[in-house]
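Subject: Sanity check before I submit

Could someone independently write out the structure tokens for this chain? I want to compare against mine line by line before I put it in a report. The sequence has 353 residues.
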Amino acid sequence: MSSGGDYHRLLHKSKSHIGQTNDFSPNQVRPLPTGPRKKSTGIQAWMLMNKKGEAQVVEAGKYAIMRRTGLLARDLRVLDPILSYPSTIMGREKAIVINLEHIKAIITGLEVLLLNSRDPTVMPFIEELQNRIQRFHHATIAQKGDVDGLNFSKEFSMLEDQDESLKVEEKTDVKNQDGSKVLPFEFVALEACLETVCNCLESEAITLEQEAYPTLDKLTSVLSTLNLERVRQIKSRLIEISGRVQKVKDELEHLLDDDEDMAQMYLTEKLVYSSNMNEGDDMDDESSQSNFDDRCSILSDDEGQNLENPHGNHTSSTQSYMNKNLDVKELEMLLEPYFVQIDGTLNKLSTIC
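---
Independent answer below. Compare away.
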């Protein structure tokens, strides 16, 4: 699979139904500084995918991402490939941080931010994620009477409108065509991450199993240097894959054992609660993010700007609300099948040993 061709094909797919290019116009993103950049800014290419499955790629520094997602610097370090952090699924006030195998993403209640989007191993995941989010969008607009085909730049035209749509979701459970409940946006994206990682690890385990048994049979028949070397290589791969599978299993097990950690991941509920608290207030900070153009332009602002969370006044009350409402059955039911799958993969590898 050609990474360059597939990458542009995927972006073309996301724009084909809205009739515009994926390049930001000058009024959408402020031009990046032409002078020398500070090493500390850590400018990286991020793919942004909104709640309609439309994707754009922008260059953004660490502080811009912190402002956009409400994350701290230590949270972003989890995604740094140089630091080799273990598998992580981490809920925060406004975002979920995912570091699983080749998938390094930040999920908010409004969008997914993805690193390494040009990596060929990530391309199938992006396509799967886009398909899932588009199905989510079609299911929600079918019941909310939203207008399909809105311009990408108008997706977050008014933050108040977004909050109003969240109130509708709170009052009415959105259903799929088969009658099943539509998961919140953040869980749709989270499930895409988990399914991709678990399936990839299971596929590697099956491939290794198919190679291991014939090689062992040859060794029992003919003891030779060549056969011994093949067994040694398989053993090395077995140890490496088992370690990766164990890390993913441990992270899922830790998450399932902690209701508070799972409650942190209900981002849509927190947005609904926060928007209800803000109703009737003069929200000057909201007007600074009144449309998607402004949200995109934030990504190229000066890195030295004030990093305060504009919604910090309600952080403690939102946290208190979530701690008192620890009904996490929906997320628990989502996580358990993937825990069972990854545990089965680990058992398969143990059998090879």
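---
OP: Matches mine. For the report I'm noting this point. The first strand starts at residue 44 and ends at 50.
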